[in-house]
Amino acid sequence: QVQLRESGGASVQSGGSLRLSCVASRFMFRSYCLTWFRQTPGHEREWVGSSLLFDVTTYGDSMKGRVTISKDSANSILYLQIIVLRPEDTGIYYCAARDCTQGEYQFWGQGTQVTVFS
């Protein structure tokens, strides 16, 4: 059973923007901490930002100021808005979920590819 499914990745010109989506199961959306990660070529998987309980959002330093996490609670969708895209943002963006009392992420989506060309 697919619990998380990302979409919205595309090939865009540098300076452009994208909105990525992650559809989660309703239970997971309401009860888990949801996070965006990315894997760029030659780098370790990197934390982009999280949506925690009580609608608290936090962001990693690498993309802070250029990303916004939002939620569509009616449809259990987590969004990642990215602006001012750069070629170094090219990579696969993943949505992951964990029990907020645990540190390990138990569920991962398949990822969505973002390619930024100059």
Any overview of this molecule?
This protein has 118 residues and is mostly beta strands. β5 and β6 form a beta hairpin. The longest helix has 6 residues, at 26-31. It is globular. Strands 2, 4, 5, 6, 9, 10 and 11 form a seven-stranded mixed sheet that branches. It has a four-stranded antiparallel sheet with strand order 1-3-8-7. It is built from one helix and eleven strands; from the N terminus they run βββαββββββββ. The model has no long low-confidence stretch (mean pLDDT 95).
Task: Provide a concise account of the structure shown.
The chain is mainly beta. 5% of the residues lie in helices and 51% in strands.
Oligomer designation: single chain
The secondary structure category is mainly beta
Give the overall average pLDDT.
95
Biggest β-sheet description: 7 strands, mixed
Rounded to the nearest angstrom, the distance between the terminal CA atoms is 38 Å
Percent of residues in helices: under 10%
Strand content: over 45%
Give the beta-strand count. 11
How many alpha or pi helices? 1
- Radius of gyration based on Cα positions: 13 Å
Q: Can you write the helix and strand succession as a string? A: EEEHEEEEEEEE
Task: Extract low-pLDDT stretches.
Answer: none
Shape: globular
